[in-house]
Amino acid sequence: MAKNTSKIFALALTGVCASASANASGWQLNDYSVAGLGRAYAGGGVVGDDYSALAYNPAGMTLGGSGVQAGISVIQLHSDVTGAYASGSLAGVRDSTNVNVTTEVPNFFAQYKVNDRVAVGFGVYVPFGLAIEYPKDWIGTDHGIDSELAVIDYSTAVAVKATD
Questions:
Q1: Which pick of 15, 49, 71, 123 has the fewest CB atoms within 10 Å?
Q2: Domain presence at residue 4
C-alpha cells in the first residue's frame, strides 16, 4: 500500500512540475438586467420585478408576473501593450501597440406565471467570455492574434412557492 502511494505521489508531482504555464484573461459579466444593475443586484431574488432572477435565484420568479426581457451589454476594451523580446527586436514586429475591441453581450429571459404558486422560466445569457484582436505585427504575435470564447448559458427553471 505504501509503495503504491509513493508511486502515485511521484507521478502527481511529476505532472505538476512538467505542466506548462497558461496565459489567459477574460471577463465575468453579471449584468443580467438593467433593473438589477441599478440596485447593484441587492435583493434581486426577492423583489419580483426582474425576469433575470432565473439566473441567480429562480425562486424569485414566483413573486412577479409573466413577461419577457432582453438586453445587451457593450464591453469596450482600450489597452496599450508594450513589450520586448529577450533576444532583441524582430524585423516587422512592433514593440508596442494599441488594442481597441468592442464586444456585444446579449441576454434574454422569459417567464410565465402558471398560477399564484408556480412559475416557469427560460433564459439565455453569457456570464463569462473573452474577445481580443491584436494587430498582426504586435509584440506577442507568436502567442496569438485573435480569440473569442463565450460561455452561453441556456437555463430553464420551475419555481414553486411552498408557503405564503
A1: 15
A2: no
